[in-house]
């Protein structure tokens, strides 16, 4: 089975580019002018090939032999050095960035599709690249010319890697409590002292240097968020033409249950008083800057979630087609002398497969759409379009992060379930992907944090929900034109209207000075928002499918497989719109209600 | 944290015995006449002590060093031999059985509570005992005097262990396809040939012999279920006063992702043509007999699910009380100079804790109630009461198995989530319990099989739903008398009425000859049934709590903790009745609908 796992469905990638989102829109923008469909396809194809031929085949070994700390050095799987070299060769690290900094001005929508293959093949391996990209982008956006020249260029070139070093043992998700201290030194740099934890790729032996983008507090800075600054803290600092040990010690490698190809470490800055850091941007604005990287990282986590659910889904489909067991619920099926059928013939197995498909493909459509908003927010020529896309990107980021984390986890559990007893064995891969997926609801802001962020801040930004409403209305118009079932369209329209009214109602509670009442059911709000947003993706996919099935097939080369392909899209759309979308009514009611069971609960009662 | 985990809340055990179910009812029955409350308490207390002092402390080591196969012998963790000796000493193995076979005539309701501690402490360790009990009970019920004397007595005594050897590699859950062959031998025994897989405790080094209760087909038997017979197949057979190798080879130890203290193995019977088996009961009735063990095993799996969720819940509560991070959503909370608070102060963390509590304690109440139905079905003096209890036991078995498997898994995932980044580390135990829990939706009949069994067979048994309705009505009367909120009572009453009407409607589709239409949404049916049954438990618990809070506290020794204890019960009842129970409306609608997305899906489309 494993040998032929496609990781991501190639046809879905084509459909997203050509029929759903339309990359033509992006190609019309000056920033992307050097490209055409062929260069996009080339990049995606190179990633796909690397993922299938090198990353995926290394996955099991990397899961089995996690990184280890020996004499202060972190050793990762020996395959990883070569894999990283090949990942760098793809040119993805700086691909979306301007040519002026060594980039190729490729849309994020395209690099996301390329990355999806790499993540599905081996999400740990991709992790090194993704973190480096985010860290270098911080230096590009906020660093001095010197920092950019010294560090950013080498990171974009794939020579050194990067990290985001936020979390501290005592503070966890609470960045206001960052306690690492930075003392100004006479040369204009700082000396850092402090401890960080859960720093992904914070130590390894695949490159010569690691550049930590670290949050710290300049000595004497005010307490809280507004006293936190951003520093560039290399593991080895540049002195003349030498690299000098910068007093950044790896004190622990966490024994993670998944993502076992990339280390998560604890770091000690300045144990010998010799850890140099360079301020990035202005003092005390670190959290603000870091949000750029965190927002990018949240989208990356969402894509990780989709990719991890995707590879498991394809494994489950292949297994369900091959594995024979039991007989159909028909008179003939009761005859034990007949041959058992593939388990995909059992309706309940198809339910588990279709649910996975709806989560995976709806999730991928959302993530690429959000990436396209990021492209438009940066590069659209029209200021109003940039603003609109920016609103949508900000609004949808918590959903794009959490939906794949939570529903992707459920999808991965179903992939194990489809494998039955074999799914419970580590000789099959679905259990490994289930372990990998579990992190996505925890890192880069837990699901609870995403919920509070969505309802407490992003959904209340003026114009945000209106922009979403306009997008959905346009989708409904396409669906209507294509002849999609009216009830499906109406259900999505109603969902978005309901969210608008609900948000106004809850926002008023916050505005009245009671944020706790507003956020009482924030997790239900995030969930219903996610369900509705995925329903929108499925309505749009249904419109594409319906149009394709009605006319002559638009892409003759794919027929006759294509009819079945589009039929399956309609089945998944029906599944999501008829079985999951109606669940939001109850969630809306909960958000409105004063249901206070856990709010009123005294923890001492437990 | 770990040192003080209570595994199961002692006060809940008291409440279930004294206030919720009332063990007095059982003590009034002749079969249990030798007992009193003190002997029950003694048994539970002995189990609790063993679980806390020996089983739980060994859990981590057994998870870390799973069984291994060397030269045909399975070696389990070296601690296990001594743990098994101490488990046997508890006297639990034969405790529910009659004195005539070496038992102690203890109610299953009591042994279940005792077992819950043992499972929560170390579910693999308990597994050896539970399987032995079930296998010996099969011999007791259907075996010849000779088989009982030779095997059953030694199993009940804890000298030898037992297994259920049903599954075969090619057949999985489809018992109609059992292909192991039994040829009659001149001495009245049989010679078996065939392969079994996923046999728990099918090989180990903690006892001198293993007695497999195996399904096989007598040569020439008809195809399908009705040609399958039950055999007693010891690993070593008794010849005179010697134990002789019986040609049962362990060919593989499965690399399971959880339950790593108990091996799951593949067996080969008769590779040398010398595997003797003895027919249990009559030919071709094996599936029928095995259902006794399977039904018992399903309840055991449900209890495993509850126990595994319970130990993780207690760990999460302790962690959430100790771990400080962030500040409350108040004006004062915005001041970063104030100290961070324990995370249990955050409403969303309490949501995750209360959800776990609702699942764990609602599940425990259900499992003990079902065990009490088993006691009454066997030992009530009134025939009508025996029949009624038997109907309820049969009806609720799939729910008692699946609810803890599915919702317990969600609860275990929440325990990981509460631990944040630490939850993703194998240095904390929640991830291990999450792995353990995953098996419960797969073994002893997958959740899909339980769904088909509930809706396709058990719920349609005449009188079954009426018996459930009467139980719930009695609970509602208690709740009304205690002054429980009328809306809570009404919601449970309505849920049970809805289930009755829905079942009649779906049953009619089956009776009309369309079982596929009846079972189209069987998984939704199982889910809504489970939610409603747990709502009934919480209504009953609320009635107990309300009564206790209204009057002078019935058990003076517990005050003043008791008021908080009962308040928490009301909070969990509110949570379940107001947030989960309303979800059934949508599920009912789905069951009624012809929503056929996955039913109509051609697997070739995927």
Describe the fold and architecture.
Two copies of one chain form a homodimer. Chain A has 606 residues and is of the alpha+beta class. In chain A, 56% of the residues lie in helices and 11% in strands. Chain A is built from 18 helices and twelve strands. In chain A, the strands form three sheets. The first copy, chain A, has a five-stranded mixed β-barrel with strand order 4-5-12-7-6. In chain A, strands 1-2 form a two-stranded antiparallel ribbon. In chain A, helix 5 runs antiparallel to helix 7 (286-322). The model of chain A has no long low-confidence stretch (mean pLDDT 95). Chains A and B meet through helix 7, helix 8, helix 9, helix 10 and helix 11 of A and helix 7, helix 8, helix 9, helix 10 and helix 11 of B.
Beta-strand percentage of chain A? 5-15%
**β-strand number of chain A:** 12
Give unreliable regions of chain A as ranges.
none
Distance between the termini of chain A: 47 Å
Order of helices and strands of chain A: HHHEEHHHEEEEEEEEEEHHHHHHHHHHHH
Question: Which structural category fits the helices and strands of chain A?
Answer: alpha+beta
Shape of chain A: globular
Greatest chain-chain contact: A-B, 104 and 104 residues
Please, what is the oligomeric state?
homodimer
Mean pLDDT over the residues of chain A? 95
> What level of helicity do the residues of chain A show?
55-70%
Tally of separate helices of chain A? 18
Neighbour order of strands in the largest sheet of chain A: 4-5-12-7-6
Reported for the largest beta sheet of chain A, the result is: 5 strands, mixed, barrel
- Rounded to an integer, what's the Rg of chain A over CA atoms? 25 Å
């Amino acid at each position: 089975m494993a040998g032929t796992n496609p990781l991501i469905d190639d046809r879905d990638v084509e459909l997203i580019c050509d029929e759903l989102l339309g990359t033509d829109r992006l190609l019309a923008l000056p920033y992307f002018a050097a490209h055409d469909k062929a260069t996009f396809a080339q990049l995606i194809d190179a990633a796909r090939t690397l993922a299938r031929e090198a990353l995926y085949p290394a996955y099991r070994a990397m899961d089995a032999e996690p990184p280890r700390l020996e004499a202060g050095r972190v050793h990762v799987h020996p395959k990883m050095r070569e894999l990283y070299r090949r990942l760098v060769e793809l040119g993805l690290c700086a691909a979306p960035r301007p040519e002026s900094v060594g980039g190729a001005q490729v849309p994020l929508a395209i690099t996301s599709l390329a990355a999806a293959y790499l993540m599905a093949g081996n999400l740990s391996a991709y992790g090194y690249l993704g973190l480096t990209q985010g860290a270098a982008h911080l230096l590009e956006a906020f660093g001095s010319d010197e920092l950019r020249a010294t560090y950013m260029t080498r990171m974009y070139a794939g020579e050194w890697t990067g990290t985001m070093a936020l979390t501290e043992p005592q503070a966890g998700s609470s960045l206001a409590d960052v306690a690492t201290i930075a003392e100004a030194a006479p040369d204009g740099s700082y000396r850092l002292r402090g401890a960080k934890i859960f720093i992904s790729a914070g130590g390894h032996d695949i490159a010569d240097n690691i550049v930590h983008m670290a949050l710290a507090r300049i000595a004497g800075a005010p307490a809280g968020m507004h006293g936190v600054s951003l520093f560039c803290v290399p593991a080895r600092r540049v002195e003349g033409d030498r690299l000098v040990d910068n007093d950044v010690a790896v004190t622990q490698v966490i024994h993670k249950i998944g993502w076992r190809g990339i280390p998560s470490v604890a770091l000690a800055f300045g144990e010998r008083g010799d850890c140099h850091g360079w301020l990035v941007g202005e003092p005390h604005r670190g959290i603000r800057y870091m949000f750029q990287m965190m927002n990018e990282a949240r989208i990356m986590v969402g894509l990780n979630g989709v990719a991890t659910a995707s590879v498991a889904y394809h494994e489950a489909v292949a297994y369900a087609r091959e594995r024979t067991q039991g007989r159909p619920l028909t008179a003939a099926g009761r005859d034990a002398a007949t041959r058992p059928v593939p388990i995909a013939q059992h309706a309940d197995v198809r339910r588990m497969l279709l649910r996975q498909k709806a989560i995976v493909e709806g999730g991928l459509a959302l993530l690429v759409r959000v990436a396209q908003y990021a492209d438009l927010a940066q590069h659209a020529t029209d200021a109003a379009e940039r603003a609109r896309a920016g609103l949508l990107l900000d609004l949808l980021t918590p959903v794009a992060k959490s939906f794949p984390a939570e529903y992707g986890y459920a999808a991965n559990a179903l992939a194990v379930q489809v494998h039955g007893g074999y799914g419970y064995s580590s000789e099959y891969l679905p259990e490994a992907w289930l372990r990998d997926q579990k992190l996505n609801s925890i890192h880069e802001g837990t699901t609870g944090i995403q919920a509070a962020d969505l309802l407490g801040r992003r959904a209340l930004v003026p114009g945000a929900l209106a922009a979403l409403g306009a997008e959905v209305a346009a989708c409904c118009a396409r669906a209507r034109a294509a002849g999609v079932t009216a009830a499906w369209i109406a259900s999505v329209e109603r969902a978005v209207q309901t969210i608008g009214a609900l948000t106004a109602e809850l926002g008023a509670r916050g505005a009245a000075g009671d944020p706790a009442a507003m956020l009482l059911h924030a997790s239900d709000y995030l969930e219903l928002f996610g369900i509705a947003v995925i329903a929108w993706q499925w309505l749009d996919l249904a419109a594409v499918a319906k149009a394709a099935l009605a006319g002559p097939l638009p892409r003759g080369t794919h027929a006759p497989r294509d009819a079945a392909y589009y039929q399956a899209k309609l089945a998944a759309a029906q599944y999501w719109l008829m079985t999951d979308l109606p669940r939001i009514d109850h969630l809306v009611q909960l958000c409105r209600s004063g249901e206070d069971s856990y709010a009123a609960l005294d923890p001492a009662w437990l």
